[in-house]
Amino acid sequence: MAHALIFDSGVGGLSVVSEIRKRLPKLHLSYVADDAFRPYGTKTETALRARLPGLLKTLENMLAPDLIVIACNTASVTALTEIRAAVSVPVVGVVPAIKPAAKESVSKSIAVLGTPGTVKREYVDSLIDTFASDCSVTLKGSSALVELAERRLAGEDISAEAVCDEVTSIFKKAPDIDAVVLACTHFPLLKDMLSPCGPSHVKWIDSGAAIARRVETVLNGEAVLNAVKSEITDFDETAFLIGPDALTKRSATFHKFGFSRVVGLCPQ
Questions:
Q1: 96 with 40: CB under 8 angstroms?
Q2: Among 49, 96, 148, 190, who pairs with 183 as Cys (CB 3.0-4.6 Å)?
Q3: Do both 102 and 73 map to the same domain?
Q4: pLDDT by residue (tens digit) across 171-200?
Q5: For residues 211 and 159, what is the distance between their CA atoms, to the nearest angstrom?
Q6: Which pLDDT tens digit goes with each residue over 44-75?
Q7: How far apart are CA 33 and CA 163, in angstroms?
Q8: How many Cα neighbours within 13 Å face the side chain of 137?
Q9: In this structure, what DSSP letter does residue 228 have?
Q10: How many Å apart are CA 66 and CA 82, to the nearest integer?
């Protein structure tokens, strides 16, 4: 197996792509950004479950991947079961890194920073009950950070103040927080701007490396690392953008992450 499809609502999945490329440099990747329906964090569970299984089945038929990575916390905690039922290849979802944050916290006070759609899901409550029952947990939802990350990776300048405005309330509410879970794949793309918004000892923890390890396990990593790439790799690695976003301002970003072609797909 040598081909993985990385799926997200926008550019957030590129943070996962970075970790996968570090661990599995020979793995062929395709990328799909569902710009037409972004942001997922403001959509209802019903709307996401109605859209995502059919869309991922269509993408599976179109691209024939050996594995799909749902590189979106909101989609994963909302519709992963339905997506897995719809497709025939293994699906790796993104789980908010609550378990490692709880383990690393000394103060036993952590925060979960995600989209509104992620932090209010029952799945996140279950993770907290299972892995962070000994911690005080502050939940913070932000759609603005998603759009700030999108703008930054489209080449726009964004202000540090705008980023910090979204997170300083966490530390005002719970000054002893020493670990923040970045429960949206867009947010690691802003980590250098997020870190100065809190005390210097705070750890900002995401799931990217864990997802890369899981991909390696599912694809029998050694075989992937040593195998000759499959027929699909005769083609350039491609990012597909669903929706009206201008390709010119975003193509450079996808090129930097290893996608030599960027193709726009018009939604029905």
A1: no
A2: 96
A3: no
A4: 999 999 999 999 999 999 999 999 999 999
A5: 30
A6: 999 999 999 999 999 999 999 999 999 999 99
A7: 23
A8: 23
A9: P
A10: 18
Average pLDDT, the chain: 91
124 and 39 housed in the same domain? no
The whole domain housing 249 covers 3-94+209-265
Do 67 and 131 share a domain, yes or no?
no
For residues 54 and 185, state if they share a domain: no
Q: Which residue has the tokens 């024939």?
A: 64
Q: Which two tokens stand for residue 51?
A: 């859209």
Domain of residue 63, CATH code: 3.40.50.1860
Same domain, 177 and 201: yes
Do 113 and 189 share a domain, yes or no? yes
From 206, 231, 254, the end of a domain falls on 206
Same domain as 14, residue 90: yes
Cβ atoms of 236 and 262 closer than 8 Å: no
**Rounded-to-integer distance, Cα 91 and Cα 254, Å:** 23
For the record, the structure tokens of 158 come out as: 């964004």
The answer to whether 238 and 127 are in contact (CB under 8 A) is: no
> What per-residue confidence (pLDDT) applies to 250?
82
The count of structural domains within the chain is: 2
**Residue 233's pLDDT band (boundaries 50, 70, 90)?**
very low
Per the structure block, which two tokens stand in for 38? Answer: 């972004």
Domain boundary among 175, 206, 237: 206
- Predicted confidence (pLDDT) at residue 112 exceeds the cutoff of 80: yes
Active-site annotation, residues: 72, 184
Residue whose tokens read 């690392």? 225
Verify that 32 and 155 share a domain, yes or no: no
Share of the chain above pLDDT 90, in %: 81
